[in-house]
Write a structure and sequence with these properties.
Layout: H1 2-9, H2 22-34, E1 39-43, E2 46-50, H3 55-67, H4 69-92, H5 98-110, H6 115-126, H7 145-151, H8 153-170, H9 176-180, H10 182-185, H11 191-210, H12 216-237, E3 245-247, H13 252-262, H14 264-272, H15 278-293, E4 297-299, H16 304-309, H17 311-330, H18 335-361, H19 372-378, H20 380-383, E5 392-394, E6 408-410
Parallel strand pairs: 1-6
Antiparallel strand pairs: 1-2, 2-5, 3-4
Transmembrane segments: 74-95, 102-121, 181-207, 219-241, 253-275, 281-297, 337-357
Keywords: Membrane, Transmembrane, Transmembrane helix
């Protein structure tokens, strides 16, 4: 029920307002549900294929083809809720008591950096009023877990599952092969989240080799899933060179402020409260390295790399903080640091509360009536982009072994994508 409530509040099923990212997402789901596969898009004289992680949409689109477009929305809600319920169930294995599980659930759901302080500093310096999405205050963004669920569920679910699998491996609840096997399958859900899983997968592999604990199944299981996923990997890689991956420079003071509000106090608290095990200390060191370095990498024109590859590390950090509270509960000498950590978590929870408030204050988002070729001209942030490479690839760039022969070519439509403004006050 918790997972279902999260995604209902995030706008899935059209009971509440959905973030602007769903303008694109709804067009993708609509096209997959309405048109015969495979289809392509015409831009001027170019034929391009939708090149995006479609794993979240495929089953709901099939339901929509069979029973109508409205059922696709409900199928997406049910699918994502079941997926998140599975992740919660796996994560509960990391805790021994019902009280510890309940505390961890609350911490993980509302975990976020202290964006409210960042926005307050912005308001104090520039006089800008607080927006209804308060994470856009710094040089980049580490999204709260509520934000990830509301805005980018396919990235969130993939990253959270990867984080939980790593922690289950570390606690010797699953083997290395069992940790690795699902990761290639997540590529069609979120290549960026998989990139964020890779440092933890590499660490697990190195430790296993160092301890000479490698087994045949640790190689065989991921090899099988990688072979099964190979067509999807080729599809996602088609024309991806146009997107662009680069190292960027960041101004030192804004960077340090961002890390001080988003990462450093939480990592330090998780490491200093109680006596974490050697594996936990190594995990926190790896989390810190990832979250300190990720802002220097840019993929495409925005900050998607930082926001999405950080999902596994942030999930692991939230669990480590929960375990720190477990240690503080048994060792009262750490009560004061635990209280300070609780205060930071409460400040961080404001971010998720603001997201929930926006969902409650606005009407459910309108039904999308246009195809993806039209969306990129009517969605503001896509219209301002200089490249379509994030979402589309030229048909000729698709490897011949998987290149489709489109049965339908979709063109730009003149009709508006939705009947009323996307964001409309409920009250």
């Amino acid at each position: 029920m918790v997972a279902l409530a999260i995604f209902i509040l995030g706008g899935e099923g059209r009971f509440f307002y959905a973030s602007p990212d769903w303008q694109v997402r709804d067009s993708v789901l609509r096209d997959l549900a309405v048109y015969r596969w495979p289809f392509a898009y015409r831009f001027d004289n170019h034929i391009e294929l939708l090149r995006a992680p479609l794993g979240m949409y495929l089953l709901p689109a099939i339901v929509g083809k069979a029973f109508g477009l409205a059922t696709a929305d409900l199928a997406l809600l049910i699918q994502n809720s079941l997926f998140l319920t599975l992740i919660f169930g796996l994560g509960s294995m990391l805790f021994t008591t019902s009280h510890a599980r309940a505390r961890a659930l609350v911490i993980v759901i509302f975990f976020s950096g202290m964006d409210v302080i960042g926005q307050w500093l912005q308001w104090h310096a520039n006089g800008h009023p607080f927006p209804d999405h308060i994470e856009q205050w710094g040089i980049t963004q580490y999204s709260s877990h509520i934000t990830q669920a509301f805005w980018v569920p396919m990235h969130a679910l993939s990253g959270w599952l990867g984080g939980v699998l790593f922690l289950l491996w570390r606690e010797k609840r699953i083997s290395l092969g069992q940790m690795y096997a699902p990761v290639p399958l997540l590529m069609l859900m979120s290549p960026l989240a998989v990139m964020g899983i890779l440092p933890f997968a590499a660490y697990a592999g190195i430790v296993t080799l160092w301890k000479r604990e490698l087994r045949v199944n640790d190689v065989l299981l991921p090899a099988i899933t990688t072979l099964l996923t190979l067509p999807a990997i080729l599809y996602l890689g088609a024309g991806s060179g146009e997107v662009g991956l680069r190292i960027i420079s960041l101004p030192p003071l804004p960077y340090m402020l961002f890390e001080l509000l988003e990462v450093i106090p939480f990592v330090a608290g998780a490491a200093l409260i109680g006596s974490p095990s050697t594996g936990e200390r190594a995990t926190l060191l790896l989390v810190a390295a990832c979250l300190l370095l990720m802002p220097f990498v840019q993929l495409g024109e925005g900050t998607d790399f930082t926001m999405r590859t950080s999902i596994p590390a942030l999930a692991i950090l939230a669990v480590q903080i929960s375990r720190a509270f477990d240690r503080a509960a048994t060792d009262r000498t750490f009560r004061r640091p635990a209280i300070i950590m609780a205060g930071m978590l409460l400040l961080g929870s404001v971010t998720g509360m603001v997201e929930i408030a926006r969902a409650a204050m606005n009407k459910p988002s309108p039904q999308v009536h246009c195809n993806m070729a039209t969306s990129i001209y009517q969605v503001a942030y896509l219209r301002q982009s200089s490249s379509r490479a994030t979402y589309f690839a030229a048909l000729d760039d698709v490897p011949g072994v998987i290149r489709p022969q489109p049965s339908t070519i979709l063109s730009h439509e003149t009709a508006r994508c939705w009947d009323r403004p996307w964001q409309a006050r409920r009250f």
